[in-house]
Amino acid sequence: MKLEQNDKSLLFSQTELPDVFFTEYLSQATGDSIKVYLYLLFLSKYNKDVKMNDLSKKLELPLQNIQDSLKYWEENGVITKKNNGYIMNNLQEIELHKLYKPKVSLSADTLKKTAENQYRAKAIENINNEFFQGVMSPSWYSDIDLWFKKYGFDEEVMIALFRYCYNRSALHRNYLQTVADAWYKNKIKTFNDLDIYYEKQEKLNKIFKSIARKLGFSRSLTQYEEAYIEKWVVDFNYNMDIIEIALKKTTSKANPNFDYLDKIISNWHEHGLKTVNDVQKFLIDLKQKRENTKELEKKTGYTNYDQRKYDNLNQLYANFNL
To answer: CA 160, 165, 169, 171: dihedral to nearest 10 degrees?
Structure first.
């Protein structure tokens, strides 16, 4: 016996969506993925059978988009694949499990320390109010606590991390963690460290633009070109005055490249040159040596190389490999 539901009841039925969908899943999912999920949630109430092609036509989405969306929700544990379809998992149970699992491993000392750390609690409250309008999902609390332990940031840096990502419309976990990793690699712990880092980045950005302009680039520098400049400025501690001396050496080249510049500047660093005067004296001395060599060759007809005779070819090849 087959029972059918009266379509008129659709006027009075509702499809419930828990708030955790908005706080945990909405921001990171694509529009197509959200569209697919909502329609599957609607169909699941009626235990409807639906084919991929029908779903594609109904939602006016390419079949590949439907498949990608199903894979996305499956990877995030929102749906579970079966032989004959999918199970729509309870989002509230998923989030409850996330919250319960880390708390099982917390020791009494850790809980006591957390309770006593009023300043940190105040910082988390500020994050909640400033960036989540007071409705931050409970799972964020566990993540923030984990990041405090992992990166060793003080409270002001943690708030600055959220503000940085919020201002770039990228307030989701993956981006937050990417930025946090970058700050950690730059040894940022305190807000003073962060100030120094910002100053360094501002200095680098000005040098990036200056070098691109002087080289006549109408494009932005690539990531690899910026890495060269960062080596010159941060590792070698060279300022723009020294770098500009190297830039002037590219005027005779049709297509100046950063490999050429890097060889020049790295050579200066290997010779222990630290100031503009050091570099200029080095170049003058080098020029003078070349002129002296040419003058000597002109007077004596002697060129500075050895003409050798090799009776043993193995010895010749050995010298080439040196």
So the answer is: -110
